[in-house]
Amino acid sequence: MYELLGYFSAILIGVTLGLIGGGGSILTVPALVYIMGLNPVLATAYSLFIVGIAALVGAFKNSKLGNIDYKTGFVFALPSFIAVYYTRRILVPAIPQEIFSLNGFVLTKDMGVMLFFAFVMLLAAISMIKGRGTSTGVKNKQFNYPIIIIEGLFVGVVTGLVGAGGGFLIIPALVLLAGLPMKKAVGTSLMIIAIKSLIGFTGDLANELVIDWEFLFSFSALAVVGIILGTYLSKSVQGAKLKKGFGYFVLLMAVTVILKELVS
Which ranges constitute the DSSP H helices of the chain? Predict the structure, then answer.
């Protein structure tokens, strides 16, 4: 029963990515940890691959529609690629199994990863509910290279730590800092998420992480089915309204993760 629910969540992840250009990846780690029973560090690695493959399909479809700005994507993505690779290759393995203890409370590595993930979920939820900076592009806006590079580094580190694509951070940055219209921001974001996530996954491979390839491919395949379905549905469904509703759902999930980690 739980396994079927987990595989259904893979389709939901893809559908959400296809409909609103982000957000779906925020479901991947909780689904892998709480439904499929993976440990958090392994789940973040699997999430990078699953999200990367699904976003790659979405980026390809957007490329055919002319909805990718390759110049902007490269400027944002290059520092992000470097940051996510070294976060997975060096930073994550360097985190101690017991981060700290206080009066009988022990913050373990797994708990720390999930609590940081919940914090990222809260940021994502607020971004989707408020919808700031994602309505339209600004023509002739000055291309702010230094800020875009810093944002790319930050998103890369966050992606490496929690295994989420970071579309909720990338899309506003592309609209506000690079002046891209919304459709191009979504398409460019999917391209960045795809390559960045897959590069981050190679950092785990370099650490000789044991991978269940059969499970990973099957879960990823369902996410790809979902993103194709979501892209098709986006032609008739208003993503903006869905985004706010999904934001409240992510907010609820973030609170659930925090309570589960601290109370159980």
Answer: 2-20, 28-30, 40-64, 70-86, 92-94, 109-130, 145-162, 167-178, 182-206, 213-233, 239-263
